[in-house]
Structures are given as C-alpha cells and as structure tokens.
Amino acid sequence: EEEGTTLSSRRRSTDGQSASMIAQEKRKDDLELLEREVEEAKQNAQGVEERLAEARQLDKDLYEELCERKKELDVLRAKDEQNINDLKEAREREEKLMNKRTLCVQRRELHARKIQELGSLPSTAELAKNR
Question: What are the Cα distances from residue 22, in Å, to 13, 29, 31, 73?
C-alpha cells in the first residue's frame, strides 16, 4: 500500500509540476503578448502625439493667417470708407461747379441778349471821332 501511495504521490507531484510548468509557460506567453501590445500602444501613442503636434501647428498657423487677413480686411474697409467719403466730396464739388457753370452760362446768355438789344458797338475809331 505504501508503494501505491508513493507512486500516486509521485504522479501527483509530476502532474503538479507539469501543470505548474504549463501555467508558467502560459504566463510567459501572456507576458510576451502583453509586452508586444504595450510596445505597439507606445508606438501608436507616439504616432498620435506626432499627428496632434502637426495639427496644433497647423491650427496655430491658420490662426495667425486668419489674424493677418482680418487686419488686411480692416485696412481695406478703412480705405473703402475713405474712398466713399472722397467720392461723396467729389460729387459735392462737381455739383457746386455745375451750379456755377449753369450760373455763368445764364449770365453769358443774359449779357448776350443785352448786347443784342443795344445793337453792335461802334469801333474804337468811331468812338474816338465822336469825342
């Protein structure tokens, strides 16, 4: 009986050792798999960080360009406003000049009628004789 007990103890011991070895091998495999996953995750994280840095730089560049364009737009709006004011002033000057022109034309026509009513003026020689 003792022999049977020792034999079964050995079997259990051997079975226990091989189960332990199998479990240990499985843990090693799992560890290697996890290490590969960690390394892959690190590489993915690095790639994401690089893309994020590029996106941030692009965002910064676009924001700076937007600010520049807004400043240019403000300058152009100010110039446009100045041009509108200049045009308004030019129209007012034109209107005043046209009014003066109309007045001058009317005076000329009035003077021409008065001259026609008086008749032609004698020459300077005739005027000098009559004196």
Answer: 14, 10, 14, 74
- What pTM was estimated for this model as a whole? 0.50
Structure tokens, 72:
């240019």
Which residue is associated with the tokens 């308004």?
88
Of the chain, the end-to-end C-alpha distance in Å amounts to 181
Look at residues 22, 26, 18 and name the one whose alpha carbon lies nearest to residue 34: 26
Q: For residues 57 and 86, give the distance between their C-alpha atoms in angstroms, rounded to a whole number.
A: 43
Checking 17-26 for CB contacts under 8 A at 24+ apart, the result is none
Q: What is the pLDDT along the chain (131 residues), one digit of tens a residue?
A: 555 555 555 555 667 688 889 999 999 999 999 999 999 999 999 999 999 999 999 999 999 999 999 999 999 999 999 999 999 999 999 999 999 999 999 999 999 888 888 877 666 777 677 66
